[in-house]
Design a protein that fits this description.
Layout lengths: L8 H16 L9 E2 L26 E14 L8 E11 L8 E3 L3 H15 L12 E6 L6 E9 L10 H9 L3 E5 L7 E3 L5 E3 L8 H19 L9 E13 L1 H12 L5 E5 L14 E6 L5 H8 L5 E5 L10 H10 L5 H8 L4 H18 L13
Helix pairs in contact: 1-2, 4-5, 7-8
GO molecular function, one term: 1-alkyl-2-acetylglycerophosphocholine esterase activity
Protein name: Platelet-activating factor acetylhydrolase
Keywords: Hydrolase, Lipid degradation, Lipid metabolism, Signal
Length: 384
């Protein structure tokens, strides 16, 4: 465990929660949204291995905008001193053209700094030698959208994770015509850069007790409803298809996505990527996609919580819990470069071909979206 002494007691306390949450878990009108600054382009990147995210597989180039929303009806549950609840999202969409629009880094410099502090103690990722801020997404900041009526995917990440771990999946879905809204949950997420440039770190310490877990999931549901209440979040020209609004979540995000669908009729389907469904009974009134890995340590509980549900199901072989995230691309690269051990790789994404497994996840989600009935056509109007 070389290098452990470089981390503070505070960082290690955070790590205890973040590792546990992701493996053990699974409205009033809001105020107008504001456009949050996009991450600056890397300049003078530090020495280190730069992870590469997989290129999207669809026919369309990909654009993105960052938004921030404030909910006047809620005080932040993790730090009431901050006042009203604030949520940051990335909207990822098919673009008409990306010529002249730069690709967006996966992490801002501030987010990369915090992620690097947590990477080694949380999951055995390298304590040094990786330029986390140098990784580029395949989404282009502010690119003009390809007009049309689109399915909308609300994505909520795993417990303790930031939305940025879903950027590869979001870009791939957008390249096939969907609009993906990556939703962060500040205070719980490992790191989130706010519109004023400050990086908010997680405030949670230690494994979550049932009350904390309930707060986490309920906060996520409210955050997602806040986003649903803001149709103007989508760039002009993109018209959401109300019959194809999908809530998609990994781990604890899968739990929250299911609860959202059970409570909000605007959500027409759920994709649960290895999240427990035993917090509340699933009502069974929405199309449901269930995907899990054969390496997840909570597989027995997953199967109990999914028992008897009518759903599309897929078990991913030789895979593990974070194969649903960008770790599927990055961790094997780190292993090939000698920066992580085989045990770390297997514990995160499994011993199999993680890139092929992640591609299968993307295909499964695209097929699920394609099977949803399309709503009646309507003439596109101005953005709200």
């Amino acid at each position: 465990m070389h290098g452990m002494n470089t981390f503070s007691r505070r960082t290690l306390a955070k790590a205890a929660l973040l590792g546990t949450v992701s493996t053990a878990l699974a409205a009033s009108p809001a105020s107008a949204s504001e456009t949050a600054p996009v991450p600056p382009a890397p300049a003078g990147a530090p020495d280190g291995f730069v992870p590469v995210l997989p290129a999207p597989t669809g026919p369309y180039p990909v654009g993105t905008v960052r938004r921030a929303f404030t909910d006047p009806s809620r005080t932040d549950p993790w730090d009431p001193a901050l006042g009203l609840r604030q949520v940051v999202v990335d909207v990822v969409y098919p673009a008409r053209s990306v010529r002249g629009f730069r690709r967006v880094p996966q992490l801002t410099p501030g987010e990369a700094r915090v992620f690097a502090e947590l990477a080694f103690p949380v999951r055995g990722l390298p304590a040094a030698g990786v330029d986390w801020g140098g990784a580029l997404t395949h989404a282009h900041a502010g690119a003009p959208p390809l007009p049309g009526r689109r399915p909308v995917v609300l994505y909520t990440p795993g417990g303790g994770d930031a939305r940025t771990l879903g950027t590869g999946l979001a870009a791939d879905l957008a390249s096939h015509g969907a609009v993906v809204v990556l939703v962060d949950h500040p205070g719980e997420a490992s790191q989130v850069e706010l519109p004023d440039g400050t990086v908010r770190e997680t405030v949670l310490y230690g494994p979550p007790d049932p009350a904390t877990f309930r707060t986490m999931v309920e906060t996520r549901v409210a955050d997602l409803r806040l986003v649903l209440d803001r149709p103007g979040a989508l760039p002009p020209g993109l018209v959401p298809d109300p019959a194809r609004v999908l809530a998609c979540g990994h781990s604890a995000g899968g739990t929250a996505a299911a609860l959202l669908a059970a409570r909000d009729p605007r959500v027409r389907a759920v994709a649960n990527l290895e999240g427990y469904l035993d917090l509340e009974p699933w009502p069974g009134r929405r199309p449901l996609l269930l995907m899990r890995t054969d390496g997840f340590e909570g597989a027995e509980r997953i199967e109990r919580s999914w028992a008897g549900l009518r759903a599309r199901r897929r078990t991913l072989r030789a895979a593990n819990h974070w194969v649903f995230t960008d770790h599927a691309a990055v961790v094997p690269q780190l292993h090939a470069a000698g920066l992580v051990t085989g045990a770390v790789r297997d514990g995160l994404v499994g011993p199999g071909d993680a890139a092929a497994t992640a591609a299968a996840v993307g295909r499964g989600l695209r097929d699920f979206l394609a099977a949803l009935p399309t709503g009646p056509a309507r003439r596109p109007g101005p953005a709200q």
